Amino acid sequence: MGKVYAFVANGSEEVELLAVVDVLLRGGQDVKLVSITGSKDVVSAHQIKLQADLEFSEADFSDADVLFLPGGMPGTRNLAAHEGLCGELLKADKAGKRLAAICAGPSVLGGLGILEGREATCYPGFEGELKGAEYTRQGVVTDGNVTTARGLGYALDLGIELLALLTDREHAGQIKDSIQYDQIPM
């Protein structure tokens, strides 16, 4: 079982956060929502009240397999401004632990130099904040220990990709099938 810490701030995009978390939980992973607000209570980008499992100050990330950042505004900017979180992301990257971010979230990794020399994706308009990365419009991209996703429409794909990386493709495929996730051709 993998240990995943999903960070949440006031203004985080709730579906990007919870869709990924849901897939990981269904796949048997241990996921903790970590608030950076100084309280377990968080208000999402669309004014939905959420309650985190932990406040940042209560958490010990030494057992982390994945650190995950949702997008949303101003949530992404709030995550990027949290010095403790930025320090943990840098430490985890140096240790080769998996980092994941979706939508505007990859801009936090870009601002820290973590995406330097990697292929990454993000919400259109944030490409310039992926400092040193090779931008791609793919929905989900894994390059080394970093996985990025383009936006809300790829939240389930990101959850499935992370589950495959934590377990295996067969298990992730079983979860994908169990949630009746078939991409609709347009």
Give an account of the 3D structure.
With 186 residues, the protein is of the alpha/beta class. It contains six helices and eleven strands. The strands form three sheets. The protein has a seven-stranded mixed β-sheet, sandwiched between helices. Strands 3-4 form a two-stranded antiparallel ribbon. Strands 8-9 form a two-stranded parallel sheet. Strand 1, helix 1 and strand 2 form a beta-alpha-beta unit. Helix 1 runs parallel beside helix 5 and helix 5 runs antiparallel to helix 6. It is globular and about 40 Å long. The N and C termini lie far apart (36 Å). The mean pLDDT is 96.
> Largest sheet, described in full?
7 strands, mixed
Order of helices and strands: EHEEEEEHHEHEEEEHH
| Relative strand content | 15-25%
Radius of gyration: 15 Å
**What's the β-strand tally?**
11
Shape: globular
How are the strands of the biggest sheet laid out side by side? 5-2-1-6-7-11-10
Mean pLDDT: 96
Sheet/helix structural class: alpha/beta
Helix content: 25-40%
